[in-house]
Amino acid sequence: MPAAYGFTAYGGPQVQRFLDLPAPVPGPGELLVEVRAAGVNPVDWKVRSGMHRAFLHLDLPAVLGREVAGVVVQLGPGVDAFAVGDPVFGTSDRGCGGYAQFALLTANRTALKPAAVSWTDAAVLPVAVGTAYDGIGQLAPKAGESLLILGAGGGVGVAAAQFARAAGVRVVGTAATAKREFVESAGVKAISYDSAAFGTQLRTALPDGADAILDLVGGDALRSFAPVISLGCRILTVADPETAARFGARPLSRESTTETLTELARQVADGQLDPQVRGIFRFKDAAAALREVESGHPWGKVALDLCGDR
User: Fold this and answer.
1) Which of 165, 186, 205, 290 is the most buried (most CB within 10 A)?
2) pLDDT given at position 310
């Protein structure tokens, strides 16, 4: 199995390829894991395209991916909360490195994986599910309130809907018509953004407006929902802070601590949370996995399963 999958220059999919790289060496506060599964996220292709160059400085070639689940094989200086052989999952502060046989995790953003949680489920918890958890926590919708999720059919949206529903919140979400049944299976009232009846669906679903909005789409999406943005509506965005600021939205701040990850894994193990990993790809099909996410229309989460390549 090739050591890693990454990119050799900033650009489109044509700069992606398998790379024969040595295993990285953990520095202070890091641990090296043998990867069993890796999450695939929109941020991965955005890093490859160069959209994050201003604040994420990489030496090329670079390995794609920032969340993994695997087995600890080496500890860096100062790491004493984990041991070699521990099953773990987490993120890398370096912003990449997950699509590989071996990856570095940041110890304070890593947690033990319960036996009841699959490798692929664990791998997708730090970024998308963690974003949903932080988003609902910061919006703090109360039981009986209405929450509108823009982009309810993706990995963040389906998780956010579950957290809100568990708190007794009424959830309305936008999704393509093809995803309507999928979204509504999570107890969400779906609004088809690609339907000619969009306006009618919106007025029917939120006749009194929304108490809170979680924007996972960005751009001018919020403009379409101006009729339900009432005085006092709390708006949080993870997609386009500059545009959303015109509607009084604030950006989401991430936690991604060991404590948060441990809680997410507990909820999955207890059956309270389903990360909805609907697309699982072999490592050799990493290009197809990223293409699925870059299309902008994945159902739930996408992950790479490296267990079958061993």
Assistant:
1) 290
2) 47
